[in-house]
Structures are given as structure tokens and as C-alpha cells.
Amino acid sequence: MTVLNRLYASSGPEVLINTLQIDVGSDIYYLCQGYEDITATTEDGTQVTFTACGIDVALPARNTDGTQDLKFAISNVEGFVSTSIRKALDSLSRATVTYRQYISTQLDAPSSAPYTMAIKSGQWTSLQVQITAGYMNWLNNTWPRYRYTLPNHPGLRYIS
What we know:
By secondary structure, the chain is mainly beta. It contains 2 helices and 9 strands, in the order αββββββαβββ.
């Protein structure tokens, strides 16, 4: 029996801790769900401190459509995250969010593989910021990705 199976099956001392790493340009924010900050090790061995705040995470549905969006809401008590995300959305700069899940008794590595997604959209109020992040929609792309046409590849004219 794995630790995650035991965690889901019982109400023992372990709890799942959802964490978010938000990268907006050169600014990086580490946030965790709960009331206490935690120091945990990421998948690449870096030890970071996640700041506790009110987070609500809606994981992407496992379905066959092309959109796999992660939606989350962050309490905007201090306002520093929403200000940075607002600037990123206004200037359309690159912003990503990495979702990790830890077990409270094993903070030396995430309990499952992390999700890293690009921030697509967001809205904010004085109380919270709501963000939608997701992967690229692979079902809505052509294949092969790059078309071999005469303007781009003039040598195709001589292939019979």
C-alpha cells in the first residue's frame, strides 16, 4: 500500500498540502494552502519556503477535449501576488504557475509529479485573485506543425 493510498483511505495524521509556485517575469512566489508556512524540497532538490495563505485549487478534468485548465483562487490579503499577476496580464508577459502537492509528514519531495502551466487569464477583487492556467490546446493544432510550402522551402519544386 502506498502512502497516497493510505492517506486517501484513512484520517490519520498526514494531510495533503497544495502549493503554488507563481513565476511572473523575474518574480517568483511560493504559496501553500493552510495556516502555517512550510519548508519543502522541490523535485530538483531546491529547498524553498512556501508562504501560507488561503488557496482554493480546481484541478483539470480528465477528459478528451483539448483544454486542461487549472483554476485557482488566492486570498488577496497582502495584495502582492495579485499586483504582479495583474501587471503580467496587462502587459501579456510570460507568467507560469507550478502546482505541487506534498504530504505533511514527507516534505522532502512532492507526492506526485508537478503541473507547470501558462497563466491564461485572471480576475481580481479587493478580497481575492482568480487565475486560470493551462496547457496548450494540442487538439486544435495542425499536424505536422510546420507546413512545407514553396515560399518557405523552394527546393520542394524540384522533388518529383
